[in-house]
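Long-time lurker, first post. I've been practising inverse folding by hand and with some scripts of my own, and I keep getting stuck on stretches where the C-alpha cells seem ambiguous. Below is the full C-alpha cell string for one chain I'm working on. Before anyone asks, I'm not after the true native sequence, just a reasonable design that respects the backbone. If someone could post their per-position residues I'd love to compare against what I wrote down in my notebook.
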C-alpha cells in the first residue's frame, strides 16, 4: 500500500472485505454500487414505497430510509413487504440517529442499518470536557454496552451495518480529545469498529462524510491507513459529500470529494447527497462511477515483484514513485510552494483562464459569458466576482480595449504581432519554448503533456531546462487515460527537482452532457487542488462535445435545476471553474450553501426554501449558510456554516449564528426575512 491506496500512479482498486447486503455483494472488487435515500415520511408507507420504486427504477442498488424512532423502524416492515410484493428485491437500509432501540428493531427487518457513531450513544451538547485516560476508557465501555446488542442482532439476522461518521456530528467526547478533525472522524468510527470486530462481526461498511471535500478526502485516506495499520485489512467504503447542496454546486462538490477518492481506487459504494428528488441523485452517481469502468487494472495474481526500472513502465505509462514517500502530505492540506509570475502562483488565488479559441470572432458582449459586462452608456466594464483572469484566444485578434483585469494568451506567432505586450502573452509547446527566438519578458505559458504515450518516461531533461525561469508558467495536461494521477505524478517530479514555477491545470473534456462535463472537470482538477497543486485552471472541451453540451444545457435550464442560469457553453465552463475553486476552498467567489438532502425527518420543503434563500443571499460572497431540515441532526451537521436555518417544528424555524441559537421557533412565513435581518445584525449583509 502507498500511504493510503494501492498505487498513486496505476489504477488499482483497494482490496476490501466482501460485505453481503441481502443478495447484493459489495466490496472486494464488486462494481461500485450506487444508492440514495428517500425523503418521504417513513410513516407514509405508500409514499415511501412509491419513491423507493422511482429510485430503484432509476438504478439505485440500495435504498436508505430514515427510522427516527421505534414506530418508523416498525413501519419498515410494511414498506419492505409492499416492495417485495411488487417484485422489488433491492436491499433497504435503515438510517439511525440517537435511537438504539429503533436500530435494534430495524436490524431484524431490513438488510442493513446505518448508525452514526457521533450520536448512537451520546447526546450532543456541544460541551468541551477534559477526559483522563480512565474517564475515556469508561466512556468506551459505555459505548460497548449500548452498541454490542445491535451487533449481536445484525450477526444473528445476517444484517449488514454502516458505521457512518459525519464531520458535523462528532460526539462531545471525540471533539474534546481530537477536535473537529479528520483524525477525530476516523477515531469515532474505529471505536465502533473495534467493538464489532471483538464480536467477530464483519458485515460492515464505513463512511467519513463532510460537506467540505477537503476534510472528507483526508478522513477517508486516514481511515484506510488506520484500518490497514491496526487490522491489516480494510472494510468497504461508502463515499459521499454530505449536505452538498443542489444543482451545479452540489454536483461539483460531490464529484470532487467522491472522484478524488475513486481515482485512487478507494470506494465501493457512492451516494451523492443533493437537495433534489432522490431519484435525480442516481444518474449523477452513475456518471461518477462509469468513469472507472474503462480503466485497466492488472491481474494482481500474475504480478511479480518489480525493480524500479520495471515499475517505471507500468501499464498506464506513468512512472511509479521512486522515493518511499511523496514530497507532499496527503493527509494535510498545504499549497505547493511556487514563485509569482504576474498574478499567478505564490499566495495569489488560483487564476481562471477561459478558452475562447473556438470562437471565430470575439466581441465585448462575448465577455459577458466570462464575468465582464460592458456598459456602452458609461463606456465602463462591470466585473463580477466570477470573472476570468485570462482568455486564451489562439489566433483570434481582439479589436477592442480590454477590461483592466483581463489578459490574453495567444499562440506565439500571433503574440509577436500583439500591440500591448503587457496584456498579451504567448503559450508554447514545451520544446517550442526552448527553441523559440522571441519570448515574453513577463510571462510565457509552456504546455507539458504529462505521461501520455508520446512522453518519454525517463527523460525529464526538458524540465530542468525550463526550471525556475521566472517568466514561465507551466500548463499541465495529460492524454493518459489515468489523467489526474499522471498530472499529480508530474507535480511530484517538479517538487523532487525543486522546480517552483507556478502551474495552470488544463482539463479537456470529451464528454457530452452538462453533468458529465461537470463531473469530469471537478474530478480532474479538484483532486489536484485538494492536495495543494495548481495555481490556475483552464477548462476546455473537444470540438464534438460543444454541440452536445449546448442541447444538454437547454434541457438543464428547462428543468429549472440550479445551474447558475448558464445560457452558453462559455458561461457554463466559466461558472464550473469558479465552482471548483469554491468547493476546494482555494478561491471564494460566491455564497456557499450547505443544504441537507432532506429525509423523512424534514420539517419544510427544502428545495423550495433553499431556492428562496438563495435568491436573496446569493450575492454574499464567502458567507456559508446552512439550510437543514430538522433540529435533531441539523445543528450538528451544519459543520462550519456561518449561519443556519433549521426546521425546529411544523411551521417553525430556528436561526443560528455558528452553533449558537439566535432566534428560536420563528414562524416559517417570515423566517427568510428574519435570516436576512440576522445577517444584517451580524455585519454579514451587503446590498445586492
Ligand atoms: S438534517 Fe436533513 S437529512 Fe439530516 S436528518 Fe435532518 S432532515 Fe434528514
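-- Answer (accepted) --
I ran through it position by position. Result:
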Amino acid at each position: 500500500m502507498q500511504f493510503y491506496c494501492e498505487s498513486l500512479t496505476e489504477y488499482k482498486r483497494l482490496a476490501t472485505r466482501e460485505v453481503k447486503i441481502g443478495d447484493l455483494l459489495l466490496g472486494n472488487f464488486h462494481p461500485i454500487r450506487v444508492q440514495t435515500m428517500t425523503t418521504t415520511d417513513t410513516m407514509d408507507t405508500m409514499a415511501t414505497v412509491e419513491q423507493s420504486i422511482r429510485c430503484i427504477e432509476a438504478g439505485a442498488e440500495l435504498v436508505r430510509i430514515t427510522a427516527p424512532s421505534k414506530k418508523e423502524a416498525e413501519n419498515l416492515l410494511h414498506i419492505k413487504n409492499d416492495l417485495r410484493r411488487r417484485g422489488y428485491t433491492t436491499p433497504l437500509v435503515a438510517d439511525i440517529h440517537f435511537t438504539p432501540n429503533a436500530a435494534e428493531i430495524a436490524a431484524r427487518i431490513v438488510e442493513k442499518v446505518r448508525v452514526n457513531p457521533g450520536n448512537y450513544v451520546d447526546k450532543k451538547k456541544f460541551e468541551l470536557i477534559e477526559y483522563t485516560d480512565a474517564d475515556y476508557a469508561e466512556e468506551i465501555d459505555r459505548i460497548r454496552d449500548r452498541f454490542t446488542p445491535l451487533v449481536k442482532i445484525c450477526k444473528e439476522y445476517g444484517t449488514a451495518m454502516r458505521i457512518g461518521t459525519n464531520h458535523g456530528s462528532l460526539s462531545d467526547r471525540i471533539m474534546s480529545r481530537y477536535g473537529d478533525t479528520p483524525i477525530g472522524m476516523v477515531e469515532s468510527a474505529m471505536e465502533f469498529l473495534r467493538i464489532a470486530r471483538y464480536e467477530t462481526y464483519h458485515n460492515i461498511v464505513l463512511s467519513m462524510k463532510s460537506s467540505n471535500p477537503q476534510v472528507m478526502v483526508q478522513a477517508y485516506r486516514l481511515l484506510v491507513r488506520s484500518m490497514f495499520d491496526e487490522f491489516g485489512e480494510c472494510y468497504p467504503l461508502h463515499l459521499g459529500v454530505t449536505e452538498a447542496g443542489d444543482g451545479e454546486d452540489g454536483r461539483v462538490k460531490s464529484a470532487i470529494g467522491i472522484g478524488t477518492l475513486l481515482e485512487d481506487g478507494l470506494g465501493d459504494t457512492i451516494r451523492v447527497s443533493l437537495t433534489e428528488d432522490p431519484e435525480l441523485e442516481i444518474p449523477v452517481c452513475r456518471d461518477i462511477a462509469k468513469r472507472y469502468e474503462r480503466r485497466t487494472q492488472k491481474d494482481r495474481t500474475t504480478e511479480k515483484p518489480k525493480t524500479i526500472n520495471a515499475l517505471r513502465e507500468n501499464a498506464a505509462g506513468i512512472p511509479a514513485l521512486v522515493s518511499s514517500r511523496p514530497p507532499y502530505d496527503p493527509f494535510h492540506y498545504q499549497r505547493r510552494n511556487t514563485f509569482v509570475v504576474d498574478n499567478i502562483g505564490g499566495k495569489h488565488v488560483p487564476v481562471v483562464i477561459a478558452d475562447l479559441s473556438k470562437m471565430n470572432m470575439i466581441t465585448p458582449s462575448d465577455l459577458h459569458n466570462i464575468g465582464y459586462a460592458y456598459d456602452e452608456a458609461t463606456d465602463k466594464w462591470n466585473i463580477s466576482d466570477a470573472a476570468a483572469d485570462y482568455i486564451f484566444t489562439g489566433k483570434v485578434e481582439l479589436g477592442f480595449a480590454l477590461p483592466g483585469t483581463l489578459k490574453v494568451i495567444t499562440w506565439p506567432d500571433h503574440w509577436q504581432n500583439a500591440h500591448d505586450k503587457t496584456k498579451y502573452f504567448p503559450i508554447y509547446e514545451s520544446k517550442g519554448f526552448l527553441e523559440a527566438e522571441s519570448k515574453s519578458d513577463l510571462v510565457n505559458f509552456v504546455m507539458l503533456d504529462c505521461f501520455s504515450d508520446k512522453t518519454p518516461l525517463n527523460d525529464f531533461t526538458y524540465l530542468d531546462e525550463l526550471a525556475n525561469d521566472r517568466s514561465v508558467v507551466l500548463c499541465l495536461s495529460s492524454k493518459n487515460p489515468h489523467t489526474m494521477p499522471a498530472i499529480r505524478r508530474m507535480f511530484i517530479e517538479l517538487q523532487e527537482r525543486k522546480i517552483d514555477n507556478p502551474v495552470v491545470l488544463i482539463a479537456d473534456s470529451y464528454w457530452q452532457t452538462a453533468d458529465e462535463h461537470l463531473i469530469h472537470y471537478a474530478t480532474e482538477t479538484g483532486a489536484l487542488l485538494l492536495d495543494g497543486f495548481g495555481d490556475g485552471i483552464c477548462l476546455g472541451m473537444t470540438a464534438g462535445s460543444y454541440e452536445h453540451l449546448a442541447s444538454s444545457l437547454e434541457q438543464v435550464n428547462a428543468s429549472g435545476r440550479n445551474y447558475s442560469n448558464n445560457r452558453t457553453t462559455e458561461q457554463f465552463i466559466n461558472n464550473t471553474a469558479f465552482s471548483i475553486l469554491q468547493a476546494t476552498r482555494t478561491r471564494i467567489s460566491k455564497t456557499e450553501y450547505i443544504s441537507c438532502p432532506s429525509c423523512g425527518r424534514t420539517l419544510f420543503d427544502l428545495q423550495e426554501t433553499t431556492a428562496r434563500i438563495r435568491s436573496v443571499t446569493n450575492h454574499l460572497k464567502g458567507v456559508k449558510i446552512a439550510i437543514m431540515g430538522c433540529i435533531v441532526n441539523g445543528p450538528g451537521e451544519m459543520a462550519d456554516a456561518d449561519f443556519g436555518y433549521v426546521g425546529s417544528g411544523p411551521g417553525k424555524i430556528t436561526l443560528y449564528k455558528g452553533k449558537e441559537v439566535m432566534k428560536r421557533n420563528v414562524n416559517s412565513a417570515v423566517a427568510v426575512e428574519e435570516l436576512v435581518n440576522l445577517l444584517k445584525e451580524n455585519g454579514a449583509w451587503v446590498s445586492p
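A couple of notes from the structure itself: The two ends are 51 Å apart (CA to CA). The chain has 20 helices and 25 strands. Happy to go over any region you disagree with.
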